[in-house]
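Repro case for the chain-ordering regression, as requested:
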Amino acid sequence: MIYLTLFWTFFKIGLFTIGGGYAMIPLIRTEVIDSHGWMTLDQFSEFVGIAESTPGPFAINISTFCGMNTAGLLGSLCATTGVVLPSLIIILLIAKMAGRVLNHWSFQSALKGARPTVVGLIGAAAITLFQHTLISPDGGIQTTTILLTTTLFILAQTFNLSAILLILCGAVLGLLVQLCQTFC
Amino acid sequence: MTTSNTTSPAEKPTLLRTLFLLALVFGKFGALTFGGGYAIVALMEETIVQKYKWLSSEELLNLITIGESTPGPIAVNTATFIGYRLAGIWGSLVAVFALVFPAWLIIVLISTCYLTLRDNVWVAAALNGIRLAAIVLIFRACLKMGKKLNRTPLNLALLILTAALAIFTPISALYLIVAALLFGFVWFGLIPRIHPHSEGQP
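-- result from build under test --
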């Protein structure tokens, strides 16, 4: 049953998203793409771009997108509910216990171990996605990809672009490349 | 942290009114904020602390720290907590629903367009560029989060080890995170408590 699987997958993702929305990216990559094959890596990068340039929390946007793409409207409901539910339950428990658990050494020390791991995982996700776009279907390396990505990175770093502006720059560059290919 | 009622005693709003306000405020957060959790946090400061005075600025900061150090999206965590403080379980349900619903609706509409338009040559070309921009975004998030880490050799080793495992092996990120949580619990928690004077762990 696809809906139940979607719900359970995103429940697990929500449960292990530590440190904000981007921590979901490596989880979605392994849980959604590798184990279920619900979408391609290319689609996933597109979703990340679109989710960042639409209003609302990134985590909700990306889950809705994945659910919608996999199993339509009901699928998006299952994925989004799944991702929200662990937070809701955990925070309600914490609120009831007046936050005592949070300061307990066992909780704090476990988190201390997870923080560098999450950063490493996000870095790895960026590298895997980049590697994937770098290699064209015929096996060669796409030089335009390297050129465009470097341009975007330098633009982002020098002007400290917001996510939406960066996505917009990406879209414009993509269109320019197509324009060159069509008319040159 | 106390769980006592924090609404101002001067005018005691009814439960229904509080729920309505919660829906309004968090609905606005869900529908109008760009750029994820932290952008919402900035807006929360403005609305929740300065306008409605539901929390003091210090309480909000505490809440955000909790939101950051518990699993789940930060915006959802904060909405749950504030809703609960103001109106109990119903408050948290209303706040989370109001936060999620507009975002869900917008994405449902956009993904419908995406699914019908993505085969168009020009849309596909723009998406090609968007994909690369998204990769840059992910990479920058990694840099930003990495800067906040303590610069210890152990942290660096953990970071590189997990990145290598994630790239070169098919092990799920989920298991890597669970392993890291267990490692942290043992290394930073248990070991200094069993041998308080060895290793010199802080």
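Ordering looks correct now. Confidence is low (pLDDT under 50) at residues 1-10 of chain B.
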